[in-house]
Amino acid sequence: MYAARTRTTICLLGLIAISAFQPLSAGRRRKQTRIGASNANDLNPMQPGSTVALVTPFDKDTGNVNMGELKQLLQMHVNAGTNNLCILGTTGESNVLTPTERTLILKTAVSEVKGKMTILAGTGTIDPNDVKSMTLEAMDLGCDAALIVTPYYVKPPQRFLVNHFTTLADLGLPVVIYNVPGRTAVNMEDASTAICAQHSNIVALKDATGDLERLHSLKKLLSENQKSSDSFLLYSGDDATTMDFVLQGGNGCISVSANVAPAEMSQLMQAALQKDHVLAKSINDKLQALNSDLFCESNPIPTKYALHRMGLIGSDYCRPPLGPMDADKYGTVIDNALRQAGKI
Prior knowledge:
Layout: H1 2-17, E1 49-53, H2 67-80, E2 84-87, H3 99-113, E3 118-122, H4 128-140, E4 145-149, H5 158-169, E5 175-179, H6 181-184, H7 190-196, E6 202-207, H8 212-224, E7 233-236, H9 242-247, E8 252-255, H10 262-273, H11 277-293, H12 301-309, H13 327-340
Parallel strand pairs: 1-2, 1-8, 2-3, 3-4, 4-5, 5-6, 6-7, 7-8
């Protein structure tokens, strides 16, 4: 009965969404503007494996983006084998960056790592016009894909979520849907995701629900629609369940822990993709405390504390309304997690 209801839901949503489901022809798509990197106009596909949800380092005294440290972090991830870079997401404090800062960060990422890692830029917000503007900028500056979160707070019905994503995918930049109902108060249902996956420019889902049952139900729906795991990637956005997510058929992760343990997270993803349960578990055991304790306070507060503790950034400063971690309460917790992971 559940499967029948699901198929009916897909049909109904598909009929509603079909008018907004035709991608722009190649001739009508907006061209990217070359900005320095020799391959800035090339779109590199999203890769299976580890994607870092990168922090944005700030100078403690001025509060400005520390571009030198940002470049160092980017190169660290290239050297560690991180497959994809996610910038300007929640972990990157994108909501408190100015448009000028966003542009500078995008240009820096393209200049530093274009062609070495796939560049996924966070462009989601409530107003579709703002999402469109940020997505077009990311495309023009040479990013490879856009991470677009379900519009938060306003709780759009499913048919309007489908319309939202398919309309934005028509702009020409590949789209990764970001479903994180714990933050947005709206859930992208599996049937809606399966409809969106039929759009050639919607290429992946970041699922931050932590619900592994949804992985299996969504894979079943995608299979029924003749979508292969190569054409629509499934990423875990919940570090605590990432290993099991990939061992059970997911394609990788978009990870906060990868900021602190990039090589280990990359190795974990490769082991899980190869279904090497023993190796994956041995790596994951060292990361388990990080995967939970980096969320002892709001992300990215503990992650910046950890990076500062490791000497990778000069300050754990987060812009208001966030701030530094309560080190008296949580300092020992994070330090122990870092020791378990072999990071201090």
